[in-house]
Design brief:
The longest helix has 7 residues, at 28-34. The protein has one helix at residues 28-34, and strands at 2-5, 12-15, 21-25, 39-45, 49-53, 58-64, 67-72, 78-82, 90-94, 108-110. It is mainly β. The chain has one domain (2-114): Beta Complex (Metal Binding Protein, Guanine Nucleotide Exchange Factor, Chain A). 6% of the residues lie in helices and 42% in strands. The strands form two sheets. Strands 6-7-8-9-4-3-10 form a seven-stranded mixed beta sheet. Bound molecules: zinc ion (2 copies).
Length: 122
């Protein structure tokens, strides 16, 4: 249905369902990890994220509590954010690693209190 890959292309995945919730996170951890003003994630059931190739290259960083941030060990592309104790069956995938178009109906901005001062958005 939806396909994605990392920068080097050694990891490829597909989503078997449309992400249910889309969030742009402005927390300082996402800023540091992505080297960007914010990170946009689409959340879906873990079972609906399928790695086609390169799953063994995934590295995982435990940023806080039970949270796991998964990225390509080869090129550093951030792919997954998961491990929330409130939503153990869910994962969040970085929307910008998708290779097929996806048009979220709504995007919520969270942790905007720590947004970068140079970022302008409406
Ligand atoms: Zn890669
Ligand atoms: Zn964040």
């Amino acid at each position: 249905m939806y396909q994605g890959s990392c920068l080097c292309g050694k990891i490829k995945y597909r989503l078997l369902s449309k992400p249910k919730k889309v969030t742009s996170c402005h927390c300082t951890m996402c800023q540091k990890q992505h080297g960007a003003a914010f990170a946009t994630y689409g959340s879906l059931l873990k079972a609906d994220l399928e790695y086609v190739v390169g799953k063994r290259l995934l590295k995982s960083y435990n940023s806080s509590g039970t949270i796991k941030r998964k990225f390509c060990g080869e090129c550093g592309s951030n792919i997954e954010w998961s491990g929330s104790s409130n939503f153990p069956d869910w994962t969040s995938v970085t929307l910008s690693t998708l290779d097929t178009p996806f048009y979220p109906e709504e995007i919520s901005n969270i942790y905007t209190e720590t947004r970068q001062c140079w970022l302008k958005y409406s």
